[in-house]
Amino acid sequence: MNFSDLFQQTGGLCLFSPNGKYLANCVQYRLIVRDVRTLQILHLYTCVDAVQHIQWSPDSQFILCGMYKRGITQVWSIEQPEWTCKISEGSAGLESVCWSPDSRHVLTFASFQLRITVWSLINKSVSYIKYPKQGKKMLDFTRDGSYMALAERRDCRDFISIFSCKQWQLMKHFETDTKDLAGLEWAPNGHALAVWDSILEYKLLLYSLDGRCLSTYSAYEWALGIKSVCWAPSSQFIAVGSFDEKVRLLNHLTWKLITDFPHPPLLEGKAVVYKEIEKKLPRLQGEVERPVGAMFAGPSHYEVVPDRPAQVPVIKADPEKANPRIGVSLAAFSPDSKYLVTKNDNMPCALWIWDIRQLTQVAILTQAAPVRHVEWDPCQPRLAFCTGTNKIYMWSPAGALSADVPAEASFLVQSVKWHPEGAAVLLLGKENMCMCFIDRDKNR
Q1: What is the rounded CA–CA span in Å between residue 268 and residue 367?
Q2: β-sheet bridge partners, residue 350
Q3: From residue 397, how far is each of 99, 219, 305 by CA, in Å?
Q4: Chain centroid to CA 332: how far?
Q5: Reduced to 3 states, what is the DSSP secondary structure of residue 157?
Q6: Which of 71, 170, 190, 409 is most buried (most C-beta within 10 Å)?
Q7: How far apart are CA 82 and CA 195, in angstroms?
Q8: What is the pLDDT of residues 42-65, one digit of tens each?
Q9: CA 199 to chain CA mean position, Å
């Protein structure tokens, strides 16, 4: 591993371009585009106000900046830096913004979810979509960019509209059997749309492109329900994490349950248990007590725990508070669909790795601090994650490692982002960023 110098950034607004050539980041109202290999600045754009959101177009030719406080979106061109575009929602306000799959339309979401506006960068035409439902996962595009699914709320009932992304025409509109739709997501092959209800009711529905309900799944009743949903890249499985601390795996042929993966506090079986061991730093002369906290963490390494049953650290959730810290909030498949990583919220220091081919647990990693962010390598089954310290952690079927970031002591890794080709990992702190380059020849 080779680490770059620290670069300034604001709000974690740092993104690799989809083609892997560029790295964009924001510093207040400035947008900086760098070359990934040399990290030299290629373009510097000045926005009208502080930026809250950035997103690359799918073809990597444009990048948009959302300034929600001003209700303005600015679009910049990489090939023609002198070309500019400014989109204003006016008095309607701006809540979020995103690209369409063709990279030539921008979708803006008005405040209070009053409407969605589709802006064309080609002929400056404008289209409106009414009644979008408020939430994070209420809109999704198919992988080939042909269709868009949008959740809507009318007369206290949930609906889904399927639009063609070529002409932005409504293809299908149907009501869903949900009380309060919480999210939707297309299967990677675009053959099915997963829709799930709010946490108050465990219900997962699978719809076809023409609006037919393929299946309805409910694991239990009268308890908090679904917390996370994830499709396998092969579209053969869908993983459903819930508040009962289990992940359930459904198949794509019958949409029935294959198995469930529990997260017990005492671990039996043959899974490899990796435990992070931190080396205590020596006391300096005159120190009464050694400083504590992520900034003063010493180097660490993993040890394999052979004893069974192995203890997994657990925190007690407060049932009196809303959104209790319990249940599986993270379920993510590796790019080859062979592995699944999960995180149970009342075991914040543990990551669970499951083998989908054998339907068994292969590893668990117990950290010295709660896991902050997890992301799979987009090209191979390799996991990178961080815990808010000055270290980056990785796991692969070959083993696990911990590496210190050779930067200032104040640089604490809050999140990680993989390069599209798996050649590097971007490490994000609160005000800085650092690139970790990986030698792929040695890795093989």
Answers
A1: 19
A2: 366
A3: 36, 31, 17
A4: 9
A5: strand
A6: 71
A7: 43
A8: 999 999 999 999 999 999 999 999
A9: 20
